[in-house]
């Protein structure tokens, strides 16, 4: 029902998670990231508790592999879960339980990992990773992961039609730099890219407004002078 990408930018030290699914509201249940700590997905027959648990394990000093083993060992019904995790050193770990649905697969390299289930082809996660690897490292991480996810769709995507998608990017603050959701749409990845094109040019302005309003640019709303 889902394929995803977790990624880290060594230059900015940002983390990003992108995810898409035939199910509604996929990002609300499956995508997790924490500034300075890492990123994770929990998917297939999703247990949303596992994402925060993976990040807590990373924050406690575990590597991606250690965090995954720690959480999978105590998770309820681990055979139904598909997990990915990425730590602050760029190390990745992936897990697909024995009851992962349909055609499924994973792919991982330093600073990125992809996983999917009920796919049109086992090649989808590798296509996502390959596309991410050739994106411009100077581009915003959010743009890079959206482009990589589109490559996964072009490689076949899910066996069924996609309906929802989401993107989380974390930077230096406790809140996300970007947190975009498409919860029910006929072309959710295209819509996610459209939302990114609106948000990206102003996203750092919102950080400045939070941290130092006196230095912030105009708010761009009616009545703002």
Overall radius of gyration? 17 Å
Span between N and C termini? 48 Å
Give the tally of β-strands: 10
* pLDDT averaged over residues: 96
Describe the protein in words.
With 225 residues, the chain is of the alpha+beta class. The chain has one domain: 4-Layer Sandwich (Glutamine Phosphoribosylpyrophosphate, subunit 1, domain 1). 32% of the residues lie in helices and 27% in strands. It is built from seven helices and ten strands. It has helices at 26-30, 50-59, 64-74, 124-133, 141-154, 188-199, 203-211, and strands at 2-8, 15-21, 31-34, 38-44, 81-87, 92-96, 105-109, 112-117, 164-170, 178-182. The strands form two sheets. It has a six-stranded antiparallel β-sheet with strand order 7-8-1-2-9-10. A hairpin with a 3-residue loop joins β3 and β4. α4 (124-133) runs antiparallel to α5 (141-154) and α5 packs antiparallel against α6. The chain starts with a strand and ends in a 14-residue tail after the last helix.
Task: From the structure above, extract its key features.
225 residues, six-stranded antiparallel sheet, four-stranded antiparallel sheet, alpha+beta, 7 helices, Glutamine Phosphoribosylpyrophosphate, subunit 1, domain 1, globular
């Amino acid at each position: 029902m889902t394929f995803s990408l977790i990624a880290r930018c060594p230059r900015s030290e940002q983390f990003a998670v992108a995810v898409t699914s035939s199910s509604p509201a996929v990002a609300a249940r499956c995508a997790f990231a924490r500034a300075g700590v890492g990123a994770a997905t929990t998917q297939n027959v999703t247990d949303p508790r596992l994402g925060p648990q993976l990040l807590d394990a990373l924050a406690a000093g575990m590597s991606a592999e250690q965090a995954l083993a720690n959480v999978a060992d105590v998770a309820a019904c681990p055979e139904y879960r598909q997990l990915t995790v990425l730590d602050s050193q760029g190390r990745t770990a992936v897990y697909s339980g024995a009851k992962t649905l349909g055609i499924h697969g994973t792919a991982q390299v330093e600073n990125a990992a992809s996983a999917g289930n009920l796919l049109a082809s086992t090649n989808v996660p590798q296509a996502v990773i390959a596309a991410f690897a050739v994106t411009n490292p100077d581009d915003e991480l959010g743009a890079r992961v959206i482009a990589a996810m589109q490559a996964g769709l072009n490689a076949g995507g899910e066996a069924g039609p996609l309906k929802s998608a989401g993107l989380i990017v974390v930077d230096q603050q406790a809140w996300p730099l970007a947190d975009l959701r498409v919860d029910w749409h006929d072309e959710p990845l295209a819509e996610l890219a459209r939302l990114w094109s609106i948000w990206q040019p102003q996203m750092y302005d919102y950080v400045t407004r939070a941290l130092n309003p006196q230095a912030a640019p105009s708010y761009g709303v009616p009545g703002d002078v």
